[in-house]
Amino acid sequence: MRRPSLNSREVSSSRKHRRIFAVNCVAMCVDCVEKEYPNRGNICLENGSFLLNFTGCAVCSKRDFMLITNKSLKEEDGEEIVTYDPDLCKNCHHVIARHEYTFSIMDEFQEYTMLCLLCGKAEDTISILPDDPRQMTLLF
C-alpha cells in the first residue's frame, strides 16, 4: 500500500471540511451551530451561551458547556460595548463564535442589542420613565 506524501494535495473524501469565517479578525465556526444568527426577538444576553443552538464542537465532536474568554468592556459616546468569545469549546478550545452586547441610553429609553453566531441577534428598548410613553393611550 502506497502512503500519501505530506505534500499531497489530495484530500480524503471522508474528511469533514469546517466552514469558518472571520469577524473582526476572530474565526467563527458555522458547523458548530444549528442556525446562524437566530432571531431572538428582544432577548439580549450580556453573557452566557444559547446552548439549544449548539450542535457540538466540529473539532472534537463533544457537546459541553462553553468557556468565556477575552471579555472586554469599552465605552464609546455613552454606549457600553461588551465583547467576548463565550463560545470556546471547553474540551479543545475551538472558537465557535464571538458575542457582542451593547447598552446605551437614548433620550428616555435604554437600548440593548446582541449579535452572536451562536446566541443570535436581538434588540430591546425599555423606557426609563415610570410610565412608558409608548404604552400611553391618547385621550380625546
Per DSSP, the total helix count is 0
Spatial strand sequence of the major β-sheet: 3-4-5-6-7
Low-confidence stretches: 1-26
Kindly state the percentage of residues in helix.
under 10%
In angstroms, what separates the terminal alpha carbons? 90 Å
Largest sheet, in brief, is: 5 strands, antiparallel
Give the mean pLDDT. 76
CATH topology: Immunoglobulin-like
CATH superfamily: Transcription activator, Churchill
Structural class: mainly beta
Protein name: Protein Churchill
Family: Belongs to the Churchill family.
GO biological process, one term: positive regulation of DNA-templated transcription
InterPro entries: Churchill_sf (IPR038543), Transcrpt_activator_Churchill (IPR009508)
3D architecture notes:
The protein is an all-beta fold and 140 residues long. The protein has a single domain, classed as Immunoglobulin-like. 0% of the residues lie in helices and 39% in strands. It has strands at 20-23, 26-29, 66-76, 79-89, 99-106, 109-116, 120-127. It has a 5-stranded antiparallel sheet with strand order 3-4-5-6-7, with no helix packed on it. A two-stranded antiparallel ribbon has the order 1-2. β1 and β2 form a beta hairpin. The protein is elongated and about 55 Å long. Mean pLDDT is 76; it is low at 1-26.
